[in-house]
Design goal:
Length: 288
């Protein structure tokens, strides 16, 4: 009686990690007999085949290039509280995600509670700094905190360049002409875009509010930028300087995207971001 309904006769795509992220590309996401399936001719990470997706127990489907999705699939995902995001290869770009309606609003409500209190907002900002640099700062002035962060990042640039054997003459970024800098500065810009995309996936997957940041304020993606910055001093710089080291004349943006996609998987970056969001915004975080 359950044959087909549970998809036991078909191959299942396992969770990509402990948070139930499933990565799909170059195929069609659809519904058959009430079950979610992904049909691909191959060419991506999956071999050609018809794969069953365990939508009842996963958090988010990451749909990469060359893919399409049916209305029935969207409806089924929404019914079961499973998020869907359209991403670039390896989540180095985040294009869109339908609003997630999770089973609980606990994280979003606690984010608002923490954000709306100046004291608790600063507590979260200081906790973010501690996660990045492994120390608790004494200051409760956000501008002082940002200044300390800037000094640490400058030192991180120097150390990362030495680690990868890249010549470094300082950060030089012109918003009006982002390609004007040297190769290392261009790579940092592109790696920053990739890291922001990964953070967007993590924020969407937990149903947090992108606009309510604790360090960043003005951007509509302020909280996304907060989470991306947790990885700026290590993973982002490894992506950027590692790409410069291996570019060999290839367009640096392409090399950065490929390198970022590889490190995101190897270091479980998105999973780590989800853990840190929960650590910062869980209902018992920053408790009275």
């Amino acid at each position: 009686m359950l044959h087909g309904r549970l998809g036991l006769e078909k191959a299942r795509i396992p969770h990509a990690d402990r948070h139930g992220l499933v990565w799909l590309d170059r195929g069609r996401l659809e519904v058959e007999d009430g079950c979610l399936r992904f049909v691909t001719a191959g060419g991506g990470d999956l071999a050609p085949g018809d794969y069953q997706i365990p939508h009842q127990s996963i958090s988010i489907v990451l749909l990469g290039p060359g893919s399409s999705v049916t209305h029935d699939a969207l409806r089924l995902l929404a019914r079961h509280g499973c998020a869907l995001a359209a991403i670039g290869t390896g989540a180095v770009r985040f294009y869109t995600a339908p609003p997630l309606m999770p089973d609980t609003s606990a994280i979003a409500r606690n984010q608002v509670r923490l954000w709306s209190s100046p004291q608790k907002r600063m507590d979260v900002a200081r906790a973010m700094y501690a996660l990045r640099f492994g120390e608790i700062v004494r200051t409760r002035d956000i501008e002082v905190l940002r200044g300390q962060e800037g000094a640490r990042i400058k030192r991180a640039y120097v150390l990362a360049a030495e680690r990868h054997g890249i010549r470094w003459s300082g950060r030089n970024y012109d918003r009006a002409s982002p390609e004007a800098g040297d190769l290392a500065n261009q790579a940092i810009n592109h790696a920053g875009s990739a890291m922001t995309a990964a953070a967007s996936v993590a924020v969407a997957s937990v149903g947090a509010i992108p606009q309510l940041g604790f360090v960043h304020e003005d951007s509509g993606q302020s909280f996304v930028l907060d989470i991306a910055d947790l990885y700026r001093h290590d993973v982002l710089l490894d992506i950027a300087f590692g790409a410069v080291k291996t570019a060999k004349g290839e367009p640096i943006e392409r090399v950065v995207r490929r390198h970022a996609a590889q490190l995101f998987r190897q270091r479980e970056v998105i999973s780590g971001m989800i853990d840190r969001i929960k650590q910062l915004l869980a209902p018992d975080a920053q408790a009275d």
